[in-house]
Write a structure and sequence with these properties.
- Helix content is 41%, strand content 19%.
- The strands form two sheets. It has a ten-stranded mixed β-sheet, sandwiched between helices. Strands 6-7 form a two-stranded antiparallel ribbon.
- The chain is of the alpha/beta class.
- The mean pLDDT is 96.
- It contains eleven helices and twelve strands.
- The protein folds into two domains: 198 residues, Isopropylmalate Dehydrogenase (3-Layer(aba) Sandwich), CATH 3.40.718.10; 128 residues, Isopropylmalate Dehydrogenase, CATH 3.40.718.10.
- The structure holds 1,4-dihydronicotinamide adenine dinucleotide (NAI) and magnesium ion.
- Magnesium ion binds next to α8.
- This is D-malate dehydrogenase (decarboxylating).
- Its EC number is 1.1.1.83.
- It is an enzyme of class 1 (oxidoreductase).
- It catalyses: (R)-malate + NAD(+) = pyruvate + CO2 + NADH.
């Protein structure tokens, strides 16, 4: 029996609605497998937790989480309770950094029955590999003076290790896909870091002669994501570029509510963390209409990570059979609730056994 111990952090807002839904789906998937089980342990870390305890996660929180096989996270953030930079840096970014989850991968593809925001989307299916530990998202810099003379300096950090690691991850991933890697650069505008990024990309690409490698400036790349997303397979990007590109990816799929993500610890020292792309969606909390598919697709990425790719593929096929029959939440133009979509996925999964 393969027993997977998962630390579950629903977080804030609709995170608490979609995480239990995706857990139910995972239990069903485990039943189909027969030799697999999930044990979820719930952690209440959230903005409400902060109000009560003065911190997003207790001092020994990381210690409590570190021996789980993975972390399953909903969304963090509630600006009515805690400013975003405190809640996100206090939990999400803390976990990503301390647990050395140095790679963030986010797919975007056309799902059957889901109307893309593009008028005539070709059948795109791409994956962004985002460097997740350094780059533009650094806490190096400072602020000086007040008023008219005030200045803020924000430094970017690009290490050879971090840059190469993200690129190698992208090439390895492309081996299993359409064998094409695009590097997101901006070496025509950013003087030091991006020419360095390009050099490392050239060097790394030499080790993968069977993979097509090209570079695109981020501005043109962003436009191509909208006009010709089908030309991409794997895209490797710095922390900031990857963050923005993946929101475009979610946008062209049709809703941020269906976009999944994984934060991968590549050295095996700490658990990886699986979280949907969307936030806590304050405008729809408690209405029962949050789209659970982002979290369920995230669960599929967790299955892939645990070498259960066959089950992962089955799960996404079932999700597409449900969307294909236009059983959709309101963000995708449907009338179904979180529960209805989840239950339909579960019942179709059961029929497959
Ligand atoms: P958001 O993703 O929460 O919401 C943007 C829009 O998309 C809203 O109209 C929302 O209703 C809709 N939406 C999002 N997920 C949906 C779903 N599953 N089903 C249906 N509709 C969905 O982004 P926003 O409003 O910028 O941020 C709200 C809070 O979430 C903030 O505190 C922010 O910092 C936090 N946040 C947290 C993230 C995380 O934990 N990884 C990521 C993004 C934002
Ligand atoms: Mg984002």
């Amino acid at each position: 029996m393969k027993k997977l111990k998962i630390a579950s952090i629903p977080g804030d807002g609709i995170g608490r609605e979609v995480v239990p839904a995706a857990e139910d789906v995972l239990h069903t998937v485990a039943e189909i497998h027969g030799g697999l089980s999930f044990e979820f342990t719930n952690f209440p870390y959230s903005c409400e937790y902060y109000l009560e305890h003065g911190e997003m996660i207790p001092e020994d929180g990381l210690e409590r989480l570190k021996d789980f096989h993975a972390i399953f996270l909903g969304a963090v953030g509630n600006i009515k309770l805690v400013p975003d930079h405190i809640s996100l840096w206090g939990l999400l970014i803390k976990l990503r950094r301390e647990f050395e989850q140095v790679i963030n991968i986010r797919p975007a593809k056309v799902l059957k029955g889901v109307q893309s925001t593009l008028l005539n989307p070709n059948d795109f299916d791409l994956m962004v590999v985002r460097e997740n530990s350094e780059g533009e998202y650094s806490s190096v810099g400072g602020r000086m003076f007040k008023g008219e003379d005030e200045i803020a300096i924000q430094n970017s950090i690009f290490s050879r290790k971090g840059t190469e690691r993200a690129m190698r991850y992208a090439f390895e991933l492309a081996e299993k896909r359409k064998k094409h890697v695009t590097s997101a650069t901006k070496s025509n505008g950013i003087y030091y870091s991006m020419p360095f990024w390009d050099e490392v990309f050239k060097e790394v690409s030499k080790d993968y002669p069977n993979i097509d490698a090209d570079s695109q400036h981020i501005d043109a790349l962003a436009a191509f994501f909208v006009t010709q997303p089908e030309r991409f397979d794997v895209i490797v990007a710095s922390n900031l570029f990857g963050d923005v590109l993946t929101d475009i990816g979610a946008g062209i799929m049709g809703s941020v509510g269906i976009a999944p993500a994984a934060n991968i610890n590549v050295n095996g020292k700490y658990p990886s963390m699986f979280e949907s792309v969307h936030g806590s969606a304050p405008d729809i909390i408690g209405k029962g209409i949050a789209n659970p598919i982002g979290q369920i697709w995230t669960a599929k990425m967790m299955l892939d990570y645990f070498d259960e790719e066959e089950l992962g593929t089955l799960l996404l096929d079932i999700v597409e059979s449900v969307t294909g029959d236009r059983i959709l939440t309101p963000d995708l133009g449907g009338k179904s609730s979180t529960k209805e979509v989840t239950n339909e996925i579960i019942s179709r999964l059961k029929k497959r056994t």
